[in-house]
Amino acid sequence: MYGKKVKLRALLISLLLVSAILSIFLVLKSLEENVIYFQSPTEIRNLSEIDNKKIRVGGMVKDNSILINPDKITFVITDFKNEINVSYSGSVPNLFEEGKGVVAEGFLKDRNFFIADKILAKHDENYMPPEVKEALEGK
Amino acid sequence: MFKFLEPNKIFLITSKAPKYVFFIFIIVLSIGLVEALFLSPEDYIQSHSVRIMYVHVPSAWISLGIFSLIALLSVGSFIFKNKNFSLIAKSLAPSGFVFNVIALVTGSIWGKPTWGTWWAWDARITSMLILALFYSMYILAWRIYDKKEQVIKITSIIAIVGVINVPIIKFSVDWWSTLHQNSSVNILSETSIHPSMLVPLLIMTAAFSLFSLLIFLMKYNTELIKIKNKGLDRL
Fold first, then answer.
1. Alpha-carbon span B192 to B208, nearest angstrom
2. pLDDT digits over B48-87, tens only?
């Protein structure tokens, strides 16, 4: 079998790995707030205080909520529990659509109203040809 | 242990195999490109920009796979004091790094038309960037240090510490809210890519793996020649 030195080296490397994993886990855990890319409307609702720091809100664009005015677009981001109204002026990405994912970057006016200065589209993990999508919807 | 890793026997393989691997690579790549660019359908929401996936996703997979391999070989090299493992790991690094950069660049090109941004500091992208930094450190360390004992130790430590990042990349989309979507290709749960798009994805993965194998064989062959020329430096 393996010599004593081999076993000791194996032990050393496992200890090194375990302690490195634990410390990285702790660091990430305490940085959670910064690791997440956006907050959901529910998390916004539960904020203890509103400051004027730039944040991102993400969720689904609520069906029939997009209103296009000459100078701005308003829509509602929902996570199917809570909602938040967003107003934005500027161009939106191609994938921005009702019923699809969205991430808005900007400032909170209050818990229900968000002024975005950047809109990003978020798509889900489903990939399929248009015909298959139509067939699925026809069902 | 590991008597089959005799340099002379390996040299016979590494000096002859590349041309065959290159031949198979060209065939698989041609099939993959025709599938990905012409035969596969457009996506119902992303339309033709989905085709970037056939380069982006395999590159990311391979850069993760190669780094895991490097770390595994480094552990083996450290525990069993087998220098050949370190040499294999060293020869794997360049192609892993190249695919890491390709994944970052194609991701940026894909992000603009779909998400609406070239770059986002989401957990998946940031951790991929960290992987690229670890690859750079690993490759640089091999070039900087000359003493054999020292260079093996330093590169092994970089690889072993860096490999902790690999599961973070993999699960970043499940643990945190990211701009990246959840994983589409799953072994345990259902895959959410239509078969007509999954097939080119897998063929391209095979093609890129063959390319990595080719670059690895050539690099490794060079390393063995270096040892032969030195004469005294036996593995």
1. 22
2. 889 999 999 999 999 999 999 999 999 999 898 888 899 9
Question: Which residues of chain B make contact with A126, given a CB cutoff of 8 A?
Answer: 184, 192-193
Residue from B47, B163, B179 whose CB has the most chain A CBs within 10 Å, to mutate: B179
Q: Which residues of B56-88 are buried (b: 16+ CB within 10 A; e: fewer)?
A: bbbbbbbbbbbbbbbbebbbbbbbbebbbbbbb
A57 neighbors A50 (Cβ within 8 angstroms): no
Its pTM stands at 0.90
Residue in chain B closest to A11 (alpha carbons) equals: B79
Rounded Cα distance between B106 and B94, Å, is: 18
* Residue whose tokens read 């064989």: B217
Contact criterion met (CB below 8 Å) for A106 and A115: yes
Residues of A in contact with B122 (CB under 8 A): 37
Query: How many CB pairs below 8 A link A and B?
Result: 115
Number of domains present in the structure of chain B: 1
Q: At which residue do the structure tokens 């916004």 appear?
A: A44
Structure tokens at A133: 């999508």
Do B183 and A24 make contact, defined as CB atoms within 8 angstroms? no
CATH of the domain at B86: 1.20.120
Q: What is the DSSP code string of B166-208?
A: HHHHHHHHHHS--SSPPPS--SSS---B-HHHHHHHHHHHHHH
Q: Which amino acid is at B27?
A: I
Flag if B176 and A32 touch (Cβ within 8 Å). Answer: yes
Q: Do B176 and A39 touch (CB under 8 A)?
A: no
Position B187 in a domain: no
Residue B9 lies in a domain: no
Q: Could you report the predicted ipTM of this complex, rounded to two decimals? A: 0.83
